[in-house]
Amino acid sequence: MDYHALLQHRRSVRRFSAAQLSQDELDAVLLAANSAPVGSNRYEDIHLTVVQRRNVLDKLSEAAIMRWKDKETMKKIIAGRSEEAVEHRMLDPYYGAPTVIFVSHRKQDVQPGIEYANVACIAMSMHYAAVNLGLGSVLMWFALESMREIPSLDNTAILRLPEDFVPLIGIAVGRPADTLEAREIKADKISVNYLQEPNCCPPTF
User: Fold this and answer.
1) Domain spans of the chain?
2) If you write DSSP's letter for every residue of 10-38 in order, what string do you get?
């Protein structure tokens, strides 16, 4: 798939079939993670955890399911979503995906904040690799955020991470329940301003 087609087919998938990834597919997604840029080339500060056990995902869902009961907060988070999508997410924040890969980072004291840039780059590399394989994927923030918001339901110890590592983002991967169709990409979704030399004009789309 060429790059423009990859962009057109990329979307966040929230309906998966139960079929598990093949080992070759999983290896390709993990290889993409290793291709991502990491600040100061410190790949030793990154750790990946592949979860394909439903009982582990259920434990990591408890805080998110509890947090959905806060209706006022949820209205702000899910603004514009259909009631059906909201209900499905309440039952399983991982949308039934058979594989969830958590990206963890060593705690930072030298360059605080760079860990979020690093894990975002890694997660997006896996996201695009999944699209290229014809798989569906969606970045996972809410479940981890909920465990930070409700410490009594923080079950991240089940991930058995190396010392001083914290899970910051996840990506759910699987076979999409619906066909991934190409979409139109609009160039005006993000605002832009230009700082250019005199007599230089902004590009047209």
Assistant:
1) 3-174
2) --B---B-SPPPPHHHHHHHHHHHHHS--
